[in-house]
Amino acid sequence: MNVARFFLVLATILVAAKLLGELAERIGQPAVLGELVAGVVLGGSALGVVPAGGTEAELIHVLAELGVVLLLFEIGLETDLREMFRVGPAALAVAVVGVVLPFAFGYLFWRYAPHAQSGSDDLVTAAIFIGATLTATSVGITARVLSDLGRMNTAEARIIIGAAVIDDVLGLVILSVVTGVAAGAALSFLGILRTLVVAVGFLVVAVVVGRFVAPRLFDVIDRMRVRYVLLVASIAFAIGLAALAGLAGSALIIGAFAAGLVLSGTNQFDTIEHEVRPVASIFTPIFFVSVGASVDLALLNPATPAARATLLIAGALILLAIVGKIAAGWAAPWARFRRIVVGVGMVPRGEVGLIFADIGRRSGVLGDEVFGAVLLMVMVTTFIAPPALKALFAREPPGAGT
Amino acid sequence: MNVARFFLVLATILVAAKLLGELAERIGQPAVLGELVAGVVLGGSALGVVPAGGTEAELIHVLAELGVVLLLFEIGLETDLREMFRVGPAALAVAVVGVVLPFAFGYLFWRYAPHAQSGSDDLVTAAIFIGATLTATSVGITARVLSDLGRMNTAEARIIIGAAVIDDVLGLVILSVVTGVAAGAALSFLGILRTLVVAVGFLVVAVVVGRFVAPRLFDVIDRMRVRYVLLVASIAFAIGLAALAGLAGSALIIGAFAAGLVLSGTNQFDTIEHEVRPVASIFTPIFFVSVGASVDLALLNPATPAARATLLIAGALILLAIVGKIAAGWAAPWARFRRIVVGVGMVPRGEVGLIFADIGRRSGVLGDEVFGAVLLMVMVTTFIAPPALKALFAREPPGAGT
């Protein structure tokens, strides 16, 4: 691999992300929207700057993963655990409804809609798959938007983040189920239970043990003399816990979020947060640009019949995806928060939907036009949530946030 | 590639680097020495944590390159260009003598020493190669030591850094010559001249143009609103210029150093330096750990005859390498500085020597025991310079620095 050429790609990604992020802010939108557009522009269907295959693509992928891991770490650092527990039941209700409803919508739509040509041999498998792609919320997109808007400290933000993290756990369960279905395996209740237990167990053990150990450990580290030892130790802790979560069969971002929660209880919390931010600011744009880069612009051209079929299915999926998640905002009638804000905050599917769609295509369960439709759904839900959230917060009645 | 496993490797590298860096400081040595030892411990001949091949190794390589690029960028930022010009002639003299002497020593040693068994078919080619491995100074190691010791602002540091950067330019010329020789090509004066002109030309054009353009450009960037735009723009500028230097046929680090020099003339210099440091502190340990990881501990076991032959050749090369570079400290009789400090500062060969040795082995010019000897020479010169510099600075007469 040519290191110089790769560095040029990296520099281009960073510059484009900041330029279009700035443009987005100037027209009153969150910066992350600009970074996604930068990805579309630099992606394979436009300029082709972001590498699509080979070692360079793997490298970008790892740097993007570092970006989302550091983002979730930062979010964990900023999360007040007691506040989180207070909104816990509401977040759980929002998450569960926000997974069950869209899944049911997607499954029933594909199972009973009239099919001109089937996307796969087995309609039920495809329907399960399409339902699955509608479930998981992209915590990265929403958290970044809330952070860009300076609204991380609202009750709505806490419920959205909490529900999105729970969604990731549920998403992992669905992912394991769906991967099994795609491989032709029978649904195993034990397998489902195991995935769920691992993800929840990891979070609980990490936070409980970490809250005891971390303050003592970081008091020791703080007495060390080498430069930036606190920062390097914190980041090693975050990517280490992310790795352990991954190796335990859960998601990297769950470990990173847990690491942030744990370190928010240390005495060195302020220094850590202050120093982690600039490091995260280098990596997170790479993540959002690479999400944008996976969008295929050819799917938007209505001149071809294939694109028209795709657009039709996509329209239906988008509607179901939005309605299913917004309805989830009303899932916790006992709690006080602005339900429409939470509902809209759960809409973006982002990277998780893309992962599901990719598995479906590679295993042959999803045909080309259905795959395109799922991609469009992911794209549109991801792109509409930031301006919608921004508009909703702008119209927020004074003092209604908490 | 398994991202989780790679993250675990990365976390281990960072933790080991800081732990052994701390240990080094506690026993009165610069932290970088501990990071090199951490690399040896994690490397293929000991624990084998640092990946030696495949995509993961390439990834570590790119992250390490990012580390050395950010290190040179930071050094460029801290370099006072007027001071640099003032020491320019002295640095040039030190650099040239420090390349010519060791090259001549190495060439003559291998050409006329008695050979029990030749390491290659062509003695002259091998001799040129061994001379070449003795030439280039590792600016990374020395700069890091000077920075760890808080001595970047001394006349000696400026001469060492200046001479080491010139060495890198000369090293590139030698590298292109040596690569040609290894491939069986005839020496081309035009080819040599071209490499030299590209490297020097790149530095001059980048700095002259950059000094005009950069202050205006960064005044504009400073008025942008997106978070950390100055930091991200600076780092994109550094890796972009490094990439351009690489694509122009020069070294990445020359571009990164030029980028630092250019940005040291902007009004946002303080903010940039303040924010770049934490980011660099994550990547530079990866570079030093990966340099340490390429050391093969089996070469140090005197029980085997092959290792004894290697150790004998290595002893001679180490002596020549040290004498040749220390003598270079006396190359500028008109300038006032502590010659022994500059001479010792030029001793470490680090990554550049490793690159030469690697090319020699892969092209079959260097036999196994000679290759091992060159590795040992690189290792020893790299490991002895930090404590020697530290001891010299401790004995510095008051006010002799500037």
Write up what this structure looks like.
2 copies of one chain form a homodimer. Chain A contains 15 helices and no strands. The first copy, chain A, is mainly α. At the A-B interface, helix 1, helix 3, helix 9 and helix 11 of A face helix 1, helix 3, helix 9 and helix 11 of B.
What labels describe this entry?
homodimer, mainly alpha, 402 residues, disordered C terminus
Largest sheet of chain A: none
- Coarse structural class of chain A: mainly alpha
- Low-confidence segments of chain A, given as residue ranges, are 398-402
**Number of helix segments of chain A?**
15
**Cα shape of chain A:** globular
What is the H/E string of chain A?
HHHHHHHHHHHHHHH
Q: What is the radius of gyration of chain A computed over CA atoms, rounded to a whole number of angstroms?
A: 21 Å
Describe the structure concisely for a colleague.
Chain A is an all-alpha fold and 402 residues long.
What's the helix and strand layout?
The structure is a homodimer of 402-residue chains.
Chain A: H1 3-26, H2 31-42, H3 54-78, H4 81-112, H5 123-133, H6 139-148, H7 155-182, H8 189-222, H9 229-247, H10 252-263, H11 269-293, H12 305-328, H13 339-345, H14 350-362, H15 368-394
Helix pairs in contact in A: 1-2, 1-11, 2-11, 3-6, 3-9, 3-10, 3-11, 4-5, 4-7, 4-12, 5-7, 5-14, 6-7, 6-15, 7-8, 7-13, 7-14, 8-9, 8-10, 9-10, 9-11, 12-13, 12-15, 13-15, 14-15
